[in-house]
Design a protein that fits this description.
The chain has one domain (about 5-130): Roll (2,3-Dihydroxybiphenyl 1,2-Dioxygenase, domain 1), CATH 3.10.180.10. Helix content is about 20%, strand content about 40%. It contains 3 helices and 8 strands. The chain is globular, with a radius of gyration of 15 Å. The chain starts with a strand and ends with a strand. Bound molecules: zinc ion. Zinc ion binds near residues 8, 10, 55, 79 and 129.
């Protein structure tokens, strides 16, 4: 698998509005847009930083993955996303190596990217997202 860069870092937040006071107001980043991904029960906000982005994640449902994450661990860093050249090849390679995956098949995430998560038990506790973007 070819990892190109860190695509984004996902941060679970209780309130996008409150968090933007930090990322825009204090750090001076620019909000690139927000998007609700109904399937994931989350509203995302992207703030580019050079070639990567901070992805703020606000839950739309306490039963969704971000709602459950915040209930268990509180707000904070939730996942790191690596951009790969070809996500289908990457997933096939991981499966062949017996790596535990959350998503066996890539699905669509925010911004039309194709994404898949590796199980944190397979990565020493870090939730890793693979992400493929077409230019
Ligand atoms: Zn992400």
């Amino acid at each position: 698998m070819k990892v190109i860069c860190i695509d984004h870092i996902g941060v679970a937040v209780e309130s996008l509005a409150e968090s933007l006071k930090v990322y825009e107001g204090i750090l001076g980043l620019e909000l690139h847009g927000t998007e609700t991904v109904a399937e994931q029960k989350v509203t995302t906000a992207f703030l580019p930083v050079g070639d990567t982005e901070v992805e703020l994640l606000e839950s739309t449902d306490p039963e969704g993955p971000i709602g459950k994450f915040i209930a268990a661990k509180g707000q904070g860093m939730q996942h790191i996303a690596f951009r790969v050249e070809n996500i289908d090849e990457a997933l096939a390679e991981l499966k062949a190596k017996g790596v535990r995956l959350i998503d066996e098949v890539a699905r669509y995430g925010a911004g039309g990217a194709r994404i898949a998560f590796i199980h944190p038990k397979a990565t020493n506790g870090v939730l890793v997202e693979l992400c493929e973007r077409r230019a």
